[in-house]
Design a protein that fits this description.
This protein has helices spanning 31-42, 59-62, 65-73, 93-106, and strands at 23-27, 47-51, 86-90, 111-121, 125-130, 138-145, 151-156, 162-166, 170-176, 186-190, 194-203. It is of the alpha+beta class and 205 residues long.
């Protein structure tokens, strides 16, 4: 993408993140971003997966409100989740450079960005409750699903209410900022093919 000029982008509504609004969720509509993301989905031959070694017969129970309340009653933190999903191995190096360059030059201009994870969820797969408290800071997830309302990101808001944020067909984004002092408990469930691409975003020194 060197030499290419991107339009000014303001697409993730980061300014809407507040102590009382800990997650921003929306549809990816910008054509420049969608072009890169759709190319990624269309070229599945570039993708290989490594299934998670972790298996559970209680997938839905593990991402329930009851499961979270049990963890909270034990007064323990779970920074990193277990989950039934596949880690994607991407052999399309242009995708890495293109999406990071676009986001770093036109969206998060005063920040540094690294890719933090590629995940593929299939039918009845999940990522259990966790906080990411061991890696605090701004996070962006871009998610693709072929069907609406069959997968979700579930989290506990600032009041203690558990919110289920459903995915809609196509590409969507979620942005949030976990910390050790103010952890964001969250989990993921999918009953369809769900691609999730994560980024960590850091303030430049």
């Amino acid at each position: 993408m060197k030499g290419q000029t991107f339009p000014k982008l303001n697409v993730f509504n980061v300014d809407k993140l507040t102590p009382s609004n800990r997650l921003v969720h929306g549809t990816v509509t910008d054509k420049s971003i969608l072009k890169i993301l759709n190319n990624f989905i269309q070229k599945k031959s570039y993708i290989k997966t490594v299934p998670s070694p972790w298996k559970s017969s209680n997938v839905k129970q593990n991402i329930s409100s009851k499961a979270l309340y049990k963890i909270l009653n034990q007064k323990k933190d779970i920074p990193t989740a277990k989950g039934e999903y596949s880690r994607m191995l991407i052999h399309q190096t242009d995708f890495h450079s293109d999406i990071v360059e676009l986001l770093s030059t036109e969206v998060f201009k005063t920040h540094s960005i690294i890719l933090s994870g590629f995940y593929l969820y299939e039918q009845n797969q999940s990522m259990m409750w966790h906080t990411n408290s061991n890696e605090p800071g701004l996070r962006l997830y871009l998610t693709y699903v072929p069907e609406s309302k069959k997968s979700f990101f579930r989290y506990m808001d600032h009041t203690g209410e558990i919110i289920t944020s459903y995915d809609n067909e196509g590409w969507s984004y979620r942005i949030f900022k976990p910390s050790k002092e103010n952890p964001l408990w969250h989990c993921v469930y999918s009953d369809t093919e769900r691609y999730s691409i994560g980024f960590r975003i850091f303030d430049n020194l």
